[in-house]
Specification:
alpha+beta, HGTP_anticodon domain-containing protein, three-stranded antiparallel β-sheet, 64 residues, flat
Length: 64
């Protein structure tokens, strides 16, 4: 899989399924704004939201 500037979630999840990658951590614009991240069980497609990183967006701003 090549890196794309604006990858599609469906393409990424299909890649995880093909490569037998069991978990995906999802951090998009909305997650950054809310200070959360989502953990998805790829085979079952069950998503859990984690609030452990409440300052996630400010941490990413420090990296810029």
């Amino acid at each position: 899989m090549t890196l794309k500037a604006n990858p599609k979630m469906l393409d990424q999840m299909q890649y995880c399924e093909e490569q037998k990658i069991p978990l995906a951590i999802i951090v998009g614009e909305r997650e950054l704004e809310e200070g959360i991240l989502k953990i998805r069980d790829v085979p079952t497609r069950i998503e859990e939201v984690s609030y452990l990183f409440m300052n996630l967006s400010s941490n990413f701003n420090l990296l810029k």
